[in-house]
Amino acid sequence: MTLRPFVIAAIALAATIGSSAMLWAQQSAMRSVWDGVYTDAQANRGKAAFEQNCAKCHGGQLQGMDEIPPLSGGHFMADWETQSVADLVQRIHNTMPMDNPGALSTASSTDVVAYLLSQNHIPAGTAEIPVDASMQSQIRIDPNKPGAP
Hints:
The chain has helices at 4-28, 40-53, 55-58, 74-80, 85-95, 106-119, 133-136; strands at 31-32, 139-140. It is mainly alpha-helical. It has a single domain (30-140), classed as Cytochrome Bc1 Complex, Chain D, domain 2 (Orthogonal Bundle). The chain is globular and about 70 Å long.
């Protein structure tokens, strides 16, 4: 008789722990850029940073120039296929712009990635790409929406 409250408490605790573990597993699972990983506001900030720092080499329409690669279209998406958003953010942050590498903060580089995703017809979502690299590394760049032909 006196064990009943303890059994109920143990069941409630187990349910809470199980729910927390499932939530953690879902949050730590790899996601695709097609899951709505940036916001329109973030892409707009990225557009401003792109225009100021990147367009002079990559073109205003992201078309690339001479030996500078385009940042939109199949070639760009194929170049980054299966890599993470963190990989792209770090590439931008560490090597761009070519005449002043590292000039863009990690936050600005993240915003530029949001802009690049938007320009590659990847839909926005309700949450921004986080600035934290460990969270960015959980977002995979897929050239096509998963399940699409």
